[in-house]
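Try it yourself: sequence plus zinc ion, in.
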Amino acid sequence: MNVAMNWPFLRIFGIQEVASVVFSICHGALHLYFWLKFRSKVPSEAPMYIVWQAYSLICINAWVWSTVFHTRDFIWTERMDYFCATSLVLASLLTHCIRVVGWHGGTFHVGITCLCIGVLSTLFFIHVWYLAFIKFDYGYNMKVNVAIGAVNTVWIVLWGIQNIRNQPYVWKAIVTVLGTSLLLLLELGDFAPVGWIFDAHSIWHGATVPLVCFWYSYIMDDTLYMYELMFKFKKTV
Ligand SMILES: [Zn+2]
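Structure, out:
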C-alpha cells in the first residue's frame, strides 16, 4: 500500500517506483526461497505444514502484485496491491489463530480451526467487496489493515512472552512483529524521494526485508517444536 503517491519519481526502464519494485521483488523472492526451505526442512506430517505453505503462497502473490503496482500505477493494479496486502495481513493473523486457538493437546480441533478460517475469510471478502463495489476509501482501508496488524502484534508479543521459557525461539516472532510495527512509522514520513528514488514507502518495504528471515526461522522452529510435541502427546495417550 502507499499513502504518499504525489511525489515525482525517477523512472528507469519505464518503471515508476524503482526502489519499491526492487524491494517488493526481494520480499517475493525471500518468501519463495523460505517456502522451498520449509518444505525441505519440515516433515510433511508436521502440524501447520499445509497452513504455512498456504501462507507463503498468499505472501508471494501479494508481493507479485506489489511489484506490478509499483511498476505501473493503474486503478486495477492499485486495487490488486491493496487487496492482496490485506490478504497478507489477515493471513498472518489467521495462521496465529490456527496455531494458538485451533491446536490443542497435540492435534487440531477441526471445528475451531474451520471457524477461524471461516470468520477471517468472510471478513476479507466483505472488506474487498466494500472497497471494490461500494466505496474505495484509502483512510478506511489503512485503518482496517493497521487494526488487524495491531491485534496480531499484541497477540504474538503476549503469547511469545508467555511461552518463551519453553519455546526460546519465539523471540524471532516477537522481533518480527515489533520491528514491522515500528518500521510502519516510516509510512508516516511524507518527504521528497531521496535521489527521486527512495521515498518513505519504499524505505518501509526495504527495511522490512530482513524481518522475513527472522519470521521464517520462527515458523520452521515452531513447526518442528509442534511436530515433536505431537509425538509426546501420542505416547502419553
Ligand atoms: Zn507498496
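One thing you can check immediately is this: Residues 1-2, 20, 66, 70, 201, 205 surround zinc ion (CB under 6 Å).
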